Amino acid sequence: TGAYSKEVEASGALNAYVEGTLNIAADQAKAADQRIAEGDAPDMCGIPLGIKDLFCTKGVKSQAASGILDGFKPEYESTVTSKLFDAGAVMLGKLNMDEFAMGSSNETSVYGNVVNPWKVDDRDLTPGGSSGGSAAAVAADLCVAATGTDTGGSIRQPAAFTGITGIKPTYGRVSRWGIVAFASSLDQAGPMTKDVRDAAIMLEAMCGHDPKDSTSADLPVPNFEAALTGDIKGKTIGIPKEYRMDGMSAEIEKLWSDGTEMLKDAGAEIKDISLPHTKYALPAYYVIAPAEASSNLARYDGVRFGHRAKLDAGDGITEMYEKTRAEGFGAEVQRRVMVGTYVLSAGFYDAYYNRARKVRALIKQDFEKVFADGVDAILTPATPSAAFGLGENMDPIQMYLNDVFTVTVNLAGLPGIAIPAGLDASGLPLGLQLIGRPWEEGDLLNVAYSLE
Ligand code: GLN
């Protein structure tokens, strides 16, 4: 922990940490030393972590990188961070992110953007989002590992942009309790780490049934590390033709075919598959996620949490809500609340929200069919490109297209992992994604491990 504290204090250059918690870290590290000395140390004991600002941490500012939660210090600890701390992990600080996890470039944060530690010709690039602070901190060695959350790709896309590993588990595997809600039917937390083994160890510590989250699955937690044999002989890997998008760059095509070859060489059977509803995933996601967000964010009313606008004489409660929310939420969050409110409104509910839910069911069925046909995992690129320049991608629709390979996984509730898979021509990391059967994170991690 000592070795990292200097970095946390001086992490201004990347803007990855938004709050240092080195006092807490010192106490946790001392307790961890004690456990290690007593021979009672789980694998996470003494491991210095960064925690995404979306996780509520008791007595420590937890703002989801939003102005509306200005100064909010929860009186409770999220289930995930409690579990990690019980396992002996050490919290170095809170990590930057897109406001309320809405974004793909970490440029919507009230704390300002994060800088990717990878550079081309000194050009500042995005680390991706929304878990951009987590990705940058792990990639730049500002912690050993970090927590992330993934609603439509926010673990996997930043992992790919920074050359690290990130897994979004099956929906229900990790408790959402104490994590600031974005789109509750899609949100899952997961580890962001330097390699697959670390991901397996940390995921195991984060998982488990939690009665405080009604969607948390009551299933035993497997030993994910034990699944890492590297043996994938006889496994069937699906290559979905719908992910071969028009205009896909030659580099991404090559990344994908090289990955396919490696799996084949390792003894897997490669199968061409079809997921016919893929093209509707992005529009369905950008209806469902804002709809749920508009409902979840209704609680920020200027009374219960954080910021309240200064009011003028004669202002009533409506003015208080309006002024508080106009000041407290950034532009992207306001856009989501407006879109979400619109698609849920009486006249448009069936045309947008209900239709998106039907599309979601079809996307899920596409996956169920290929798994029933014997496919064990699906290989795709993680992102359509390498990291782009900060300030380069200002059109919201263009930004949403970044999530084209990742959102299907959330809509279907499946586990997905991004792993580093080489560099592009300018020397930037590129990632591959593997999608697994529900509840088979062990198998999925093992296929990823065979590619390392
Ligand atoms: N980029 C997507 C969005 O902005 C996904 C975000 C996430 O997974 N939290 O909604």
TrEMBL record:
Name the enzyme group at the top EC level. Answer: ligase
Q: Where is the Amidase domain?
A: 1-445
Single Gene Ontology BP annotation: translation
A single GO molecular-function term is: ATP binding
- Keyword tags: ATP-binding, Ligase, Nucleotide-binding, Protein biosynthesis, Transferase
What cellular component GO annotations does this protein have? glutamyl-tRNA(Gln) amidotransferase complex
Query: What family does the entry list?
Result: Belongs to the amidase family. GatA subfamily.
Q: What does the function comment of this entry state? A: Allows the formation of correctly charged Gln-tRNA(Gln) through the transamidation of misacylated Glu-tRNA(Gln) in organisms which lack glutaminyl-tRNA synthetase. The reaction takes place in the presence of glutamine and ATP through an activated gamma-phospho-Glu-tRNA(Gln).
The record's PANTHER family line, in alphabetical order, gives: GLUTAMYL-TRNA(GLN) AMIDOTRANSFERASE SUBUNIT A, TRANSAMIDASE
Please state what the protein is called.
Glutamyl-tRNA(Gln) amidotransferase subunit A
What species is this protein from? Cognatiyoonia sediminum
Protein encoded by which gene = gatA
